[in-house]
Design goal:
This protein is 27% helix and 22% strand. It is of the alpha/beta class. The chain folds into two domains: 143 residues, 3-Layer(aba) Sandwich (Cytidine Deaminase, domain 2); 209 residues, Dihydrofolate Reductase, subunit A (3-Layer(aba) Sandwich), CATH 3.40.430. Strands 10-9-8-7-11-6-12-14-13 form a nine-stranded mixed β-sheet, sandwiched between helices. The protein is elongated, with a radius of gyration of 23 Å. The structure holds NADP nicotinamide-adenine-dinucleotide phosphate (NAP) and zinc ion. Zinc ion binds next to loops.
Length: 367
């Protein structure tokens, strides 16, 4: 084993612990990343732990270092993301690291934020600290895939979800779709929503299903509910207009439709420069979203995939048979004419939810 591999292997167990700590705040830190940290004293005994629990709250490393106090001197900080070196809502963590007296910092991945990106590591190395990088790099990259994607692409990570019958339909020919999936599957969707910053549907789903789109109390605040519409021909009495339950945003391209005036006061309205899924997500990134859940029908879902706005797919497969040739299927036109053009999803997981199946896949399209 080479010296550098050996050096990394020593820290795997502690980095795993730091990643577990980071995951405690999944869905709560946007636009910030998930970060976990632990501090070991000179003898390698755990003396401090911390994780970033929300935007504007203390950073993981500074929490763990405060907990360790003077025991950090000569010790090691293990952290899932490169410590920041700029003033944001809190002072730079590199200052706290240097003041703590640790002699070594072990890091999983560099921060992709251009204000940090390697600079934090340089500051620590230039101050004479030993810095080990790349420990459990793959796991840490996966854990922060939405943050990394948003920083690099300027729009949030997209998950598209649909519930489908065994014969591949997402609604009856008359549009009725409640419910194709079972209770366990619907509860798993509430849980998934609670890990997302926004849930998006199109006008068609609003008119057909009048959905509530909340986590049923699993997340506080509830994710932002977004309706994407061109016509603005939306019902006056939708459940989404009650914004005491959760915030709602109606997004539409620039048009002169006067029907906007009919809507109740609760929802926020945004006029997009371009009426495209990509532009919608750019606006949601500015509203601090790292991860969004598309719960729309086939028209919007296909556009979102074509524009690179979907990175993961959750398919709930139910053993029901719906039939009906005009019944909607999950996706509309994707424009392929040859089998070697089609998208090939990569399996992430496969789970039984009572008599339903939950299939999670990665869509290989990062435009
Ligand atoms: N089983 C499931 O998991 C599931 C999930 C969702 C929906 N569904 C079913 O799917 C059916 C609805 O399908 P759908 O395709 O009509 O729903 P949809 O994709 O949610 O809505 C389509 C609508 O989205 C808006 N839209 C699409 N592209 C747009 C763009 N570029 N800019 C602005 N607005 C845009 C338009 O709204 P306007 O018409 O208002 O302009 C369009 O008519 C319903 O029967 C529903 O029950 C099933
Ligand atoms: Zn920091």
């Amino acid at each position: 084993m080479s010296k550098s591999i050996d050096q990394k292997a020593r820290w795997i167990e502690w980095m795993d612990r730091a990643l577990q700590l980071a995951s405690l705040a999944e869905g709560e830190t946007s636009p910030n990343p998930l970060v976990g940290a632990i501090v070991l004293d000179k003898a390698g005994v755990l003396v401090g732990e911390g994780f970033h629990s929300g935007f504007g709250k203390a950073h993981a490393e500074s929490q763990a270092l405060v907990q360790a106090g003077i025991k950090a001197r000569g010790g090691t900080l293990v952290v899932t993301l490169e410590p920041c070196c700029h003033f944001g809502k809190t002072p730079p963590c590199t200052d706290a690291v240097l003041q703590s007296g640790v002699q070594r910092v072990v890091i999983a991945i560099e921060d992709p934020d251009p204000r940090v990106s390697g600079k934090g590591i340089s500051i620590l190395r230039n101050a004479g600290l030993e810095v080990v990088t790349g420990v459990l790099e793959e796991q840490a990259t996966f854990q922060n895939r939405d943050f990394i994607f948003r920083v690099k692409n300027g729009r949030p990570w997209g998950i598209l979800k649909w519930a489908m019958s065994l014969d591949g339909r997402i609604a009856l020919p008359n549009g009725v779709s409640q419910w194709i999936s079972n209770t366990e599957a619907r509860e798993s969707v509430y849980h998934l929503r609670s890990k997302c910053d926004a849930v998006i549907i199109g006008g068609g789903t609003l008119r057909n299903d009048n959905p509530l789109l909340t986590t049923r109390g699993l997340a506080n605040p509830e994710p932002l509910r977004v309706v994407f519409t061109q016509k603005l021909d939306l019902p006056a009495d939708s459940q989404l207009w009650d914004t005491t339950v959760a915030r709602t945003l109606v997004a539409s391209g620039i048009n002169n439709n006067k029907s906007m005036k009919r809507f109740p006061a609760g929802p926020e309205f945004v006029q997009l420069e371009r009426s495209t899924p990509k532009n919608l997500l750019e606006v949601l990134a500015q509203k601090n979203c790292n991860r969004v859940l598309w719960e729309c029908g086939p028209l919007l879902a296909s556009q979102a995939i074509q524009e690179g706005c979907v990175q993961e797919l959750l398919v709930i497969l139910s053993p029901k048979l719906l039939g009906g040739e005009p019944a909607r299927t999950p996706l509309a036109e994707l424009g392929f004419t040859r089998m070697d053009e089609v998208l090939l999803a990569k399996r992430i997981s496969f789970e039984n939810l009572g008599d339903n199946w939950a299939i999670k896949v990665r869509i290989p399209m990062d435009k």
